[in-house]
Specification:
Elements lengths: L4 E12 L2 E13 L2 E10 L7 E10 L4 E10 L2 E10 L2 E8 L2 E8 L5 E3 L4 H8 L8 E10 L4 E19 L2 E11 L9 E6 L4 E5 L7 E10 L1
Pfam family, one: Glycolipid_bind
Organism: Eiseniibacteriota bacterium
Protein name: DUF3108 domain-containing protein
């Protein structure tokens, strides 16, 4: 067996209405021809829905998501979701409060996966080059609460600014992106900064860069 090697670790601080409301601790490792990211995301008041979720995602060497396992605890309820790929099909099994459901659908080449952690933004960016003003639109499987099930959609990523951003280890060169879900207008999306390694440094509530959503406060490349 090829041992795994941790190549990066980090922690995001999350905000709600400008106030800290929790954090997400994660690690990224490689081994046996795949990439694995695991994390724990904790939200507390003043967030309106305090909860804890743990996730583990496996990706190919080309950053294509192969599986996603989720444990979510909220309000005394626990949900477990297991998502896995078989060829170009996506299959999910979800259990909560003694009830189970299954789901499956297409997962064509070039399709992305969105999940409530900014590491999935990294996966999307890693396969694409963006000049200033450049954009990419692609199919996406959106996974999130309350069911942690899949909703197919289209997603648009657009690079809107180059600049220098204060990261957890000092100022770094970065690009700012806007993420939206057509046909919904771009104003319903959100914006974020990412560094040269496609790690999200900071994101914002909507397009207003004075309203923080998540900020990378600890980061180490090993």
């Amino acid at each position: 067996m090829i041992p795994s090697q941790v190549i990066a670790t980090g922690r995001y601080q999350q905000f709600f209405a400008g106030e800290p409301c929790g954090d997400e601790v994660w690690r990224l490792e490689t081994g046996a021809g795949e990439i694995v990211v695991a994390g724990e995301h904790t939200l507390v008041a003043p967030h309106p829905l305090p909860n804890v979720h743990r996730y583990r995602v496996a990706l190919s060497a080309e950053w294509r998501v192969k599986s996603l396992d989720v444990e979510w605890q909220v309000g005394g309820r626990e949900l477990v979701a297991n998502h896995a790929v078989e060829g170009t099909r996506w299959r999910a099994h979800i259990e909560s409060q003694g009830h189970a459901r299954s789901q499956e659908g297409d997962y064509p080449l070039g399709c992305e996966v969105e999940y409530p952690t900014h590491l999935f933004n990294t996966f999307m960016l890693s396969k694409r080059d963006f000049a200033l003003g450049g954009e990419h639109e692609f199919a996406v499987l959106r996974i999130g609460p309350p069911l942690m099930a899949v909703s197919p959609a289209q997603m648009l990523l657009r690079c809107v600014e180059h600049g220098t951003v204060e990261g957890p280890n000092g100022p770094v060169a970065a690009k700012r992106y806007v993420l939206s879900v057509p046909p919904a207008p771009e104003s319903e999306g959100y914006t974020f900064w990412a560094d040269e390694h496609d790690i999200v440094l900071a994101s914002f509530e909507g397009l207003d860069t004075t309203r923080p959503w998540m900020t990378l406060v600890e980061y180490q490349r090993l």
